[in-house]
Amino acid sequence: MLKGASRPDLAVDPYRVAPRVPCFVPVVTSSLDRSWSSNLSVTGLGLTGFVTGRGAPAQDSDLEVELRLGPAQVIRAPGRVAWSTNVRPDGRVALGIRFDDASARTRAALARFVADHRPRVVVGLASPREQELVRAVLPHVELVFVDHRDDLREEVLRSCSSMLVFAHDATTLGAYLSAVWRAHDDAASAPGDLPRAPITLCTTVAPDRLLPLVTDGRLFEVLRPPVDGQALADSIARSCDRWAMQVELGWAAMLLEGLSLRQRAPGRLSAATHAPHIVRASARMQRAYELVRIVASHDVPALLVGETGTGKELAAREIHALSPRASTAFVAQDCGALTETLLESELFGHVRGAFTGATADHPGLFQIANGGTIFLDEIQNTSPALQAKLLRVVEHGEVRPVGGAKVRRVDVRLIAASNIDLRAAVREQRFRADFFYRLNRFPIELPPLREHPDDILPLARHFTATLCESMHRPRAPLDPAFEEALTAYAWPGNIRELRNAIERAILLTPEGEALRAETLPDELRGRTESFATGLDAQIAAVERRIIESALDRHRGVIRRAARELQVNAVTLARRMRRLGITVE
Length: 584
Prior knowledge:
This protein is α/β, with parallel strands linked by helices. It is 41% helix and 18% strand.
């Protein structure tokens, strides 16, 4: 599968990749400890290992590598670091090594190894007659026969593309498979990412004993004796292809991460800087972002509190950008956008067979964000049961996929956000107190736009510039009446509502002309006109605008809008009827 594989031309010649094969063998280099290769070609190799006291090798640095390709074949070659991933919290790093200065003899040895490479298939518990069948139908692969579970060593499993097990006794089969998984877990603690070799089982054991293993994803295929030779050959070919694809995907992910870090070099913001697109003209916002700067350098959970549209996700991204995790993943999830079951699966992942439609293992967002930051918006929408699981992640760094039995360790910084008073939710027993106090270690309040009006016009000018640029049109000036209308409005939808109003105005304004008040939504222009009406009409207009904005933000769900407005849902529905507000 991997032989002859290639990737799109990246327009950078040093990264061009020759045909490669998976090659999991120990590599000796002074720059890394406990290193293993992941793939090998004539022009270079990928490897993973743990950094030593010297730190990770720098881009384009030279290093000597030594790897054993066979019992009597040791390759020593000068290499150069083509790309490097971010160093993981446990000290692990992946590198791409080029053999630019390798001798002709070394290149010839590597070329022979790549050309002669064959997938390795481990055959377990086969009788002499079954071994004869396997040799007859699988002449194109390297066969390793293992007669006892104690012979399942790391060096056997690490380079194994597929496993074939013959067993007709449930007890013997269970003991052997347990040894396989235990040995695999031990091997997986090594620095190289080790795909689990698919297992094809030839057995007469009752199907009901095997069904849990199949639904759990621990078995690839089950063949019933008498085994047809062609069916066996096809099954092993499919399993080898699947394993090779897993290797390829893992290698590609490391390569893309390394190239991304190289393109972003130096790539890490200092603690004294901030993202240039964040507007903070008012003293209120400057104080809030001073807290953002302070908490960014300390690896503790943060809680962002503020109304919808005040820029909580932008502040979370700022914390991540100013933190030591800046070059790692930032993952965001709106907890109010999914049902509880779907949200749990999205956050923690699920295993194959966990529920109807779960046809494969699915990694959760915590696993995807491992080493980086996860941002959970509208954290108040999580259930107490899910809050208990999130608390365990925060305290112990442990996640358990839905339907899985194995706990997985993650190193993730959690930033949460809420648009309601969580203390009140705790008093009303709608939010777990222990989880709240764990999140509330460093709260940051982001004020509504009406409380820092000095930022309205700077934000408007910023949105005008960025939106005009994205629309490929010249930047439009702001008419004085347009600016007056912006500053006179209360902005219940906060910064998000302001951006939407600016975008609408740009679309309604011909190129080259200034943005005028006539292009603003009716509720903005109606504020100055409403003084001609009575007090009751003005109050009703403001109340209608606030309720409609809340319903828009919550997609017409009255219960959620009522919670934000801190009124009973029945009371809100009665006011809607009085004001003539309907929900489609």
